[in-house]
């Protein structure tokens, strides 16, 4: 099992989860974070830290696409290990449906 970041992170990008991760398995895109599934130790400390509730265990049904997306982008985006401010529009974007189709960017973030 691993944890995955899902679509509610898009254009929110809270980094509370990054700060508590004991193995630094988060990677940063322009407007989204991902978890590297091979580095995640399944400790679960990140899940309750996410204000947007965007982190889920991969055992939940319907997350295959998110597991693949997390895996694919964790191998090309820079590692992030420090907490930063969320995106300016985070509060307005939290909970908006269809964020992946509307807003997902494959561009990398700044990382550490």
Overview of the molecule:
This protein has 112 residues and is of the alpha+beta class. The protein has a domain of 78 residues: Alpha-Beta Plaits. A two-stranded antiparallel sheet has the order 1-4. The protein has a two-stranded antiparallel sheet with strand order 2-3.
Task: Give me some keywords for this one.
Alpha-Beta Plaits, single chain, two-stranded antiparallel sheet, 112 residues, alpha+beta, 11% strand, two-stranded antiparallel ribbon
Low-pLDDT runs: none
CATH architecture of the domain at 3-80: 2-Layer Sandwich
Whole-Å distance between the termini?
Answer: 26 Å
**Percentage of β-strand residues:** 5-15%
Shape: globular
Q: What class do helices, strands and sheet pairing give?
A: alpha+beta
What is the name of the CATH class of the domain at 3-80?
A: Alpha Beta
Radius of gyration: 12 Å
Strand order of the largest sheet: 1-4
Major pleated sheet:
2 strands, antiparallel
**Helical coverage, percent range:** 10-25%
What's the oligomerization state? Answer: single chain
Average the pLDDT over all residues and give the rounded result: 96
Total of helices: 4
Order of helices and strands: EHEEEHHH
CATH level-3 fold name of the domain at 3-80: Alpha-Beta Plaits
Quantity of strands, as a count = 4
């Amino acid at each position: 099992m691993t944890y995955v970041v899902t679509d509610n992170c898009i254009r929110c990008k809270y980094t509370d989860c990054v700060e508590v991760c004991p193995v630094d398995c988060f990677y940063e895109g322009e407007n989204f974070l991902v978890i590297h599934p091979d580095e995640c130790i399944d400790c679960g400390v990140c899940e309750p830290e996410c204000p947007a509730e965007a982190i889920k265990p991969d055992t939940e049904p319907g997350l295959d696409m998110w597991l693949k997306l997390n895996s694919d982008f964790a191998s090309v985006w820079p590692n992030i290990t420090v907490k930063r401010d969320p995106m300016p529009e985070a509060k307005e974007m939290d909970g908006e449906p269809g964020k992946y189709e509307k807003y997902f960017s494959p561009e990398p973030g700044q990382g550490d």
